[in-house]
Amino acid sequence: MESSNYSLKKPNRITEFLWWCAGADPYFMRLAPMQDRVKYAGIGGIVLCTGLLAGVSGAFAFHTIFGPKGDANDYSLTASIGMQIATMIFAVVWGLVIFNLDRFIISSTGKGDGTDAITWKEFGQALPRIIIALILGFAISSPLEIKILESEINSELSKFQAEYAEDLNKQTDLLFKQKRTGLEKDKAELEGKLTSYEAELKVYDDKIDELVEKKRLEMQDKRAYGEGPVAKALQKNIDDKMAEKEKFVA
Question: How far is 15 from 40, CA to CA, in rounded Å?
Answer without folding.
Answer: 9
